[in-house]
DNA sequence: ACATTTTGTGCAAACGTGTGCACAATCTAA
DNA sequence: TTAGATTGTGCACACGTTTGCACAAAATGT
C-alpha cells in the first residue's frame, strides 16, 4: 500500500489553475503574475507539495544525482576528501551516489546502471577504474571529473593538487636539513599521484644528482597504504649487513602520509630506529592522523576542502563552459617534527 | 546536445514486436514464448539497450536508490561500516546516496528531496539526526533502518551490535586482571552506543560495586572521538595532587576505540604513563588502527561486514516481512596488549 | 469436431512533470 | 478608438516505461 503523493494536479485544483501554471510557479524565469505565483506557492507549501524529481528527470533528462567513484574507503585522505565532497554537493542540492571501485567488474556493471539515472556528472576520485569507463560516460555526454588522476581523457575535467611544487618543497626541505642519501617510497602498483610525485622529486634533485653530491633510491612497496609503508621499511633493512647501515638513506619522502606512517611505525617499533633523530620522513596529504602526537609528521598538505570546492564549482560551470577545465590546487608545507638535520 | 538513448521502442521495432513485449522480456515471471524472449534479448544486447530506471521508477514507484545518512566521515568505525555497506549494496544492484548529517538543518532539506527519488529505504547509521526525520519517512511508507542507534521508532528496523555481551566481557577482562579501580570514558554528548555500553558495564559490575570491592568512575569527554579521549585523559590527571595518584583508576573502558586511542596517546605522550604497565585500556569497535603496532589495543570487535550483510538482507526481506526486524550482531573480545595485571 | 482452457502478444492508459504553441486579456502608443 | 505589443494562462503532447485488459492462436479435453 503505497502512500499517495500529492501531485501538481492537486495543488492546481486547489488553486483553481492548470498544472502548467503550478509547474511554472516553481521556475524562476517564467512569466507568471506575482499574485498567482504567491497564491500557488502558498497552497503548495500548505499541502506539503514537493515536485517529483523522478518525473522531472524524465522530461528534462537531467537529475540532481552525481556519481562519485572511489576505490574503497581505505585511504584516509580519500575519506576526508569524500567527506568534503559530500558536504559541498549537498549544499548545492546535489546528491552523490557512491560507487566502490574495488571490484572492477562489479563496478563496470553498476556504473552502466548509473548512467540510467541521468546523473549530472561523474566524479572519479582515486584507485584505477579503467579509463574506458570515463570514456563511456563522455560518449553518453555525461561530464567526467577526474580528481588527482592521470588524464588520458581529453574531454574530462581535471582537478589536481600541485604535485610539482609539493615534491620540490620536499626535496628542498630534506636538502636544507643536510641529507645526502635520499629515498622515495612508492607503491609498485603505479598510481598517478605517486608516480607524479616521484618524478617531480627526482626532477628537483636532478642537478645535485648529476654532480654526485647526493644519491636517490627508490623504495618500492606492495601497496600505497599503511601496510605497504610498514613492510617497505622492514624490507629495506632486512638483508642489509651492519657494515652497510651507514649507506642507507636518511631522508625519506613518501608518496603519501599513510605510507609514511606505516614506514615510521616499522622504523620505531620494529627496527628500533628513531624519527627524526636517525631518519627524517616527509609525507604528502596531511591526513588527520599525521598531526597527532604519536606521529607529528612533516608533510605537504593538500586541502580537501579546496578540492571539493573546486569540484563543486566545476560542476556548476559545466553547462556554460565550452572546453574541459584544468585546475591545480596549491599545496603547503606543514613543518612538524619528523625532519631533523642529518646526523652524518 | 543530449545523446539520444535507445529506447524499448527501438528494440521493439527492430524485433518486430510491441514495446510491451520488450518490457516483459526483461521480467522473469512474464508469459513470453522462449523464442521471442531470446530474440528480443539478443537484439537488445546488440543495440546496447538498457532499461531507463527513471521511467521505470515513475511507474513502479520504486527505485534502486537507497539513502545512507551518516554524521560525517570522522569516526573510523563509521568509515569501515559505510565502506562495507556500499560494497554489499552495490552487489545487490542498489545505489546508496550518501547524506551528511553534520548540519541538521541542511540535512532535513536534503532528506526531503531524497524522498522524491523514491528511495527503496533509508539507512541511518550514526550521529543524531532528529528521529523526527525517521518518522517522516515512515509516514511516507519508506522503510527506515537504524544501525547502532536508539530505537524510538517502533516502525523502524533495528540492527545493533551486542553492547551487553561486549561490556560484560570488558568488565570481566579488567576484573580478571585484578583491577579494582575502574573507569568508563564516554562523551557528555550522549550517543546511544556510548550510553548503552556504559550502562551494561555498570550492570556487569553491580554486585562487586555494591559490596565495595571495587570502584567505578565516569570519565567524561567533550566528544566521542580521538580529541575527546585525548583531552579526557589530560583532564583526569590535570589537577590531581600527587598524593591522590594512587587513587586514580587503573582499568579503563572506553566507549569506542577512537576515544581509547586518544586516551592512550595522552597517557603515553603527554603524561608519561605506560599502557598497559600503569593503566589498562579496553576499547570497542576494533577499528583498523587499533591493531597496529603503535597501539595494540585490546578491544571488542563488532564486525562491520556482518552488520552490512544483515542490513542488505534486511532490505531484501522488507517486502515480504510484516513486522519490523530486530537484529543483534555478536561482538568478540580481541585480546592484544593494552591490558595487564593491575600493579597495585 | 467442438467447447474450453492455456498461452502469447498488442493496445492503451497511467506515472507526474516540462514546455511549445495558441489565445485571451491587459496595456501601450498613435 | 484602434492596432499592435505585452503579459498571463491553458491545452495537449512528450518523456520511457509497466501492466490490466482484450483477443487471437494454439493446445487440450470430451
TrEMBL record, chains A, B:
Q: Which InterPro entries match?
A: HTH_LacI (IPR000843), LacI/GalR-like_sensor (IPR046335), Lambda_DNA-bd_dom_sf (IPR010982), Peripla_BP_I (IPR028082)
Q: Which PROSITE patterns match?
A: HTH_LACI_2 (PS50932)
Kindly give the SMART domains that the UniProt entry links to this protein. Answer: HTH_LACI
Keywords, alphabetical: DNA-binding, Repressor, Transcription, Transcription regulation
Among the GO molecular function terms of this UniProt record, one is:
DNA binding
Looking at the record, the residues that make up the HTH lacI-type domain are 6-60
**What Gene3D superfamilies does UniProt report for this protein, alphabetically?**
3.40.50.2300, lambda repressor-like DNA-binding domains
Q: What is this protein called?
A: LacI family DNA-binding transcriptional regulator
Q: What is the lineage of its organism?
A: Bacteria, Pseudomonadati, Pseudomonadota, Alphaproteobacteria, Rhodospirillales
Amino acid at each position: 500500500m503505497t502512500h499517495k503523493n500529492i501531485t501538481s494536479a492537486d495543488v492546481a485544483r486547489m488553486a483553481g489553475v492548470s498544472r502548467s501554471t503550478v509547474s511554472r510557479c516553481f521556475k524562476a524565469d517564467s512569466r507568471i503574475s506575482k499574485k498567482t505565483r504567491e497564491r500557488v506557492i502558498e497552497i503548495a507549501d500548505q499541502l506539503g507539495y514537493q515536485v517529483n524529481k523522478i518525473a522531472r528527470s524524465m522530461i528534462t533528462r537531467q537529475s540532481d544525482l552525481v556519481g562519485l567513484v572511489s576505490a574503497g574507503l581505505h585511504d584516509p585522505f580519500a575519506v576526508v576528501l569524500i567527506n568534503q565532497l559530500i558536504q559541498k554537493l549537498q549544499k548545492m542540492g546535489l546528491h552523490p551516489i557512491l560507487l566502490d571501485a574495488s571490484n572492477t567488474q562489479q563496478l563496470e556493471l553498476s556504473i552502466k546502471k548509473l548512467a540510467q539515472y541521468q546523473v549530472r556528472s561523474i566524479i572519479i576520485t582515486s584507485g584505477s577504474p579503467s579509463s574506458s569507463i570515463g570514456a563511456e560516460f563522455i560518449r553518453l555526454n555525461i561530464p567526467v571529473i577526474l580528481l588527482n588522476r592521470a588524464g588520458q581523457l581529453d574531454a574530462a575535467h581535471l582537478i589536481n593538487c600541485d604535485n610539482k611544487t609539493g615534491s620540490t618543497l620536499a626535496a628542498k626541505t630534506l636538502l636544507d636539513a643536510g641529507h645526502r642519501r635520499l629515498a622515495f617510497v612508492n607503491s609498485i602498483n603505479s598510481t598517478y599521484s605517486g608516480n607524479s610525485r616521484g618524478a617531480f622529486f627526482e626532477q628537483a634533485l636532478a642537478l645535485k644528482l648529476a654532480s654526485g653530491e647526493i644519491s636517490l633510491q627508490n623504495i618500492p612497496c606492495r601497496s600505497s597504504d599503511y601496510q605497504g609503508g610498514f613492510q617497505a621499511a622492514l624490507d629495506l633493512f632486512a638483508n642489509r649487513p651492519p657494515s652497510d647501515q651507514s649507506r642507507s638513506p636518511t631522508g625519506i619522502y613518501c608518496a603519501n602520509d599513510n605510507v609514511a606512517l606505516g614506514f615510521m611505525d616499522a622504523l620505531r617499533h620494529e627496527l628500533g630506529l628513531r624519527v627524526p633523530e636517525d631518519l627524517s620522513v616527509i609525507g604528502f596529504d596531511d591526513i588527520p592522523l599525521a598531526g597527532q602526537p604519536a606521529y607529528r609528521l612533516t608533510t605537504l598538505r593538500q586541502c580537501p576542502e579546496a578540492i571539493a570546492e573546486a569540484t563543486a564549482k566545476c560542476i556548476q560551470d559545466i553547462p556554460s563552459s565550452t572546453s574541459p577545465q584544468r585546475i591545480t590546487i596549491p599545496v603547503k608545507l606543514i613543518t612538524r617534527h619528523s625532519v631533523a638535520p642529518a646526523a652524518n
